[in-house]
Please model this.
Amino acid sequence: MPHDERSGYNRFLLLVAGLGGLLYGVDVGIIAGALPYLEATSGLNAGQLSIVVAAVLLGSVISTLFAGALADWMGRKPLMILSGLLFVCSIPIIALSHGYESLVLGRLLQGISAGLIGVVVPLYLAECLAAASRGKGTGIFQWLLTLGIVTAAVVGMYFSFRVEEVARLGDPEKLFAFKDTAWRSIFWVSLPPGILFVIGGFMVSESPRWLFLRGKRDAAYSALLRSRTKEQADVELGEMEQVTAAERAKSSTGAKVKESLLRRKYVIPFVLACVILACNQATGINSIIGYNTNILLQSGLSDVQAHWGYVLFTVVNFLMTIGGVLLVDRKGRKFLLSVGTAGIILSLVSTGLLFRKTERLRVDSRGAVQAMVTEDQKITLTYNQKLAETLLGTSFGTSLNSSPGTPGDAAARIGNRPTSLVVIYSYGDFRAATKAARSDDAAATPIQIARESSVPANKVVAFFSNPFGDLDAARQAPLRIDNALITPLPSPRSGMLVAITLFVFMAFFAIGPGVCVWLALSELMPTRIRSNGMSIALLINQAVSTTIAAVFLPTVGKHGYAAMFFGFAACTVIYFITAAVFLPETKGKTLEEIEAHFEGASS
Model:
């Protein structure tokens, strides 16, 4: 194939992979902008809305389990097309829905699509791209994934401005109708990239390594020639044949060779990939993205500043990912992961120290809030300066660093500073935490604590919330206030410093783990276990993400943001050691050379 055609095909490969990343990012970010309007117009209760939001996670977990087996059975290319079609089908199901069941079905399809894309696109890229451009290709997947998140944030911001304009008209019916149109439009906007991804999937070649494993040597060679010179294709095909011949030789000498995870060449890269995938989530990235606005609000910024801070946060992610894409094939994976994790540790510790300054003064007013529980086991309260003074006046003033005092000690220690209130409560075995309410927010909606906001709607959701919880007992249990924590708000200057440390966190994550994690997932494991190994590693990744999401608000409510950020930093230390000490450099190496490294042979 002429050089121009090869270059054009490689660029097209990167475009299709990028569209896959864009869809993955949209899947992650789209609900944040649509949820307020869906909540206002759908008539769904809190339990139903939580299932609509969580359906993507459930679908992603299910499809990730089977993505590797499907990729081996039907091929990488057909699975990419299938994942795109599922996404395309999900959009009209959601946007045209007028009921709970269709919303859940559409979101479930989106999650299934995201789980398949997260496995098959990095897998396909690793097996199709030449060693010299494999890092760039997988980096573009991550880059456009961040663009998907930015796009979702910008679209959500656009509709928030439009809703505000309609609200000024003072017509409740028009406002309701526009909010209904807004959340549907947000989903429609994500349809075009899905269609383009499906079309692109039909136009690319199948993975040459999958074809070779299926005994289609000539088809594999033809696929290699579409993206490589004849010399490169000959070398890689020869390496594939050598690996296969070595396996046959071992079998013929009587060695019972089973393609399992128990051999050295499999177990070491598999464990490395799993540790990297788990630690990637243990940096707190998903929770810091998901709760970014809340974190900035509690750091001392105003509501408008916090929302703009989140937009800037996603823009930093997008821009710094470009740097990662440009550097990954020059500096290497090991270097970027080591630098990135070191920067993450410093930024997380700095953020924790900034929060620690005010959180050491927090006090617990659970007794006073427990007294507000009504006969129907609910609480509705508006947290303002007057209520804050009342609660502080009846509190004993037990702070994080002091012993109990007398009532009124807390008020004296905090003074007249604005404060925030987080209530941690439970019905039986199921706990929840309210969003932080600020005493200086005159437009804040009341805090409402009810059974449906804590107790899952069914046993499936209950299992993911607390596998050992008694759902039937929780439906009858009284409301118990575990903590009602009042914390003085930091100054706006402190809020700006927190925002800067979070931007630094995002920059180091984007340039290191953000780009390299997909490479580690797809490059480390040998061809014969790559698809199933990737599924297992991604499942571990999602399990860690789900666990952190479940404990984030209760932990922050009880121990403060400082404790959470210090915990993330400690986990990232393990990540740094893994990257700097145990991870081999895979830059510029073919997949077969990487496999030989773990086998203990010289490449």
